[in-house]
């Protein structure tokens, strides 16, 4: 493939790499993916790939960033007053439908992705995340009587990830639990439990009228 020279060509090439890596991840476990595989699926030389991303972790961190940006944009449109806690929780649950890629990547964020990138790349991601959460937090404070919108969002993030990882168990084990009445309490319906836990959390943050 010819070398990208203009800024537009370079951005298109970057997006192509992200799309190719994501498609590869849909069929190949993350641990088995190599930069050579990504380069081949992108029709690039391996050296060219490293001009865009220094590591597999940095590449997938960028994929996560694009997924988060789409999610944040949806929430920014939805977080408009007047807003009740029940409405907010429903919006949150609905917004996570069909976002398995994002949730899977978020579950890898601390232990895999951030652990494998440079401090500079990690800080750049955190600064971007802080900016986006501040925007959402401000909207949340206007829509609900909460004092610290970013803190609410961080608590919701912890709730989302805890429930997602608890509910995301191997299919064979899930089927085994379903046939054992004593263990069925360990089966977690992600969206149902998220609504319950998130509503309790948001109500706990409400300022007195």
UniProtKB/TrEMBL annotation:
Give every HTH tetR-type domain span: 11-71
Q: Does the keyword Calcium apply?
A: no
Gene3D superfamilies per the record? Answer: Tetracycline Repressor, domain 2 (1.10.357.10)
Record's keyword annotation contains Transmembrane helix? no
Which keywords does UniProt give here? DNA-binding
Q: Quote the Pfam families the UniProt record gives.
A: TetR_C_34, TetR_N
**From which domain of life does this come?**
Bacteria
Question: GO MF terms on file?
Answer: DNA binding
| UniProt-listed InterPro entries | Homeodomain-like_sf, HTH-type_Tx_Regulator, HTH_TetR, TetR_C_34
User: DNA-binding region spans which residues?
Assistant: 34-53
PANTHER family for the chain: ACREF/ENVCD OPERON REPRESSOR-RELATED, ACREF_ENVCD OPERON REPRESSOR-RELATED
Q: What is this protein called?
A: TetR family transcriptional regulator
- Recite the lineage of the species: Bacteria, Thermotogati, Deinococcota, Deinococci, Deinococcales
């Amino acid at each position: 493939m010819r070398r990208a020279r203009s800024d537009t060509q370079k951005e298109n090439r970057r997006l192509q790499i992200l799309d190719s890596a994501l498609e590869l991840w849909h069929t190949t476990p993350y641990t088995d993916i190599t930069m050579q595989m990504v380069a081949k699926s992108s029709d690039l030389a391996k050296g060219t790939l490293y001009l865009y991303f220094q590591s597999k972790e940095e590449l997938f961190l960028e994929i996560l960033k694009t997924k988060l940006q789409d999610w944040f944009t949806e929430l920014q449109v939805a977080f408009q007053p007047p807003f009740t806690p029940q409405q907010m929780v429903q919006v949150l649950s609905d917004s996570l439908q069909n976002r398995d890629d994002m949730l899977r990547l978020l579950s890898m964020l601390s232990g895999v992705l951030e652990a494998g990138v440079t401090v500079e790349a990690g800080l750049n991601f955190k600064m971007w995340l802080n900016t986006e959460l501040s925007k959402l937090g401000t909207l949340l404070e206007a829509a609900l009587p909460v004092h610290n919108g970013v803190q609410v969002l961080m608590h919701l993030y912890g709730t989302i990830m805890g429930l997602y990882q608890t509910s995301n168990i191997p299919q064979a084990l899930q089927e085994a639990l379903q046939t054992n009445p004593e263990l069925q309490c360990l089966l977690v319906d992600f969206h149902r439990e998220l609504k319950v836990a998130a509503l309790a959390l948001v109500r706990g943050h409400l300022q007195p009228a």
